[in-house]
Amino acid sequence: MSSSLHPMLNVAIKAARAAGSIINRAALDIESVRVAQKQVNDFVTEVDRAAEEAIISTLLSAYPGHGILAEESGQEHGAKNSDYVWIIDPLDGTTNFIHGFPVYCVSIALAFKGKIEHAVVYDPTRNDLFTSTRGRGAFLNERRIRVSKRTQLKDCLVSTGFPFRPGDNFRAYMRMFSEITQRTAGVRRPGAAALDLAYVAAGYCDGFFETGLSIWDVAAGSLLVTEAGGLIGNFTGEADFLEQRECLAGNPRAYGQLVSILGKYSKFATTENKMLVDQEAKTDNDSEITD
């Protein structure tokens, strides 16, 4: 642990590395990992649970008066009314993990009175550690990172995640995907939102968008992005997005252009824009029938 880092960030790093060790050991024998299905295409493994337990134990040993909000155990642990709340995704990218596809991570954020103050995203397969403290910048393996400087969307690489839950509007998402694909240098779907956001912060991707995300998917990544000079919000560009289940991030120029494309698909879009999307959907359906 580094003496120059905030003590709370150091504890988060310790917790993330402990979880990463559990994940890496399990990855050596994926076939033996027990998998359960929470809902369609939404999996949890014994590794998720063991990693989460290791994180919670590490955090509460240091700060027993803090609250916990974790993907698998919710608010079962920690203090219930603390101003400090740790927001934890022990294994973001579980579907990738159980297939041996090496794109997944540990995500830990600390919120104080609802504002994210510290963040860690740890990729155990590459031993990449993304860290941030509010006002102190964002770092990858102790090296300062910044969002990319690309200014034209046609040159930008954008990452996303497809909706996979029952009730998700897949048709609308495919229209978003189509619009972005035609206006950018490429769209990627890695499958771990926290790592996608870390990659925006590092400048590997110029933008990111996805719907249906929970707060533990985006809390840590959101601070990395803003501390690296980027912007993050919902599809209409509003910054109060953490629990709105739609997320858009990017370098400032790419972000503005993405908002202009995706804003009409937001659940917070104007009535006029929603009618426009409905009309486009009807046109698409009519053309499919005609074809």
Description of the structure:
This protein has 291 residues and is α+β, with helices and mostly antiparallel strands. The chain has 2 domains: 7-136, Fructose-1,6-Bisphosphatase, subunit A, domain 1 (Fructose-1,6-Bisphosphatase, Chain A, domain 1); 153-290, 3-Layer(aba) Sandwich (D-Maltodextrin-Binding Protein, domain 2). The protein contains 8 helices and 14 strands. The strands form 3 sheets. It has a 7-stranded mixed β-sheet with strand order 3-4-5-6-7-8-9, sandwiched between helices. A 5-stranded mixed β-sheet has the order 11-10-12-14-13, sandwiched between helices. A two-stranded antiparallel ribbon has the order 1-2. Strand 1 (35-39) and strand 2 (42-45) form a beta hairpin. The longest helix has 21 residues, at 7-27. It is globular, with a radius of gyration of 19 Å. Belongs to the inositol monophosphatase superfamily.
Annotate the secondary structure layout.
Layout: H1 7-27, E1 35-39, E2 42-45, H2 46-62, E3 67-70, E4 84-92, H3 94-98, E5 105-112, E6 115-123, E7 128-133, E8 138-140, E9 143-145, E10 157-160, H4 170-183, E11 186-188, H5 193-202, E12 207-211, H6 215-227, E13 231-233, E14 246-250, H7 252-262, H8 271-290
Parallel strand pairs: 3-4, 10-11, 10-12
Antiparallel strand pairs: 1-2, 4-5, 5-6, 6-7, 7-8, 8-9, 12-14, 13-14
Helix pairs in contact: 1-2, 5-6
Enzyme class: hydrolase
Keywords: Hydrolase, Magnesium, Metal-binding
Cofactor: Mg(2+)
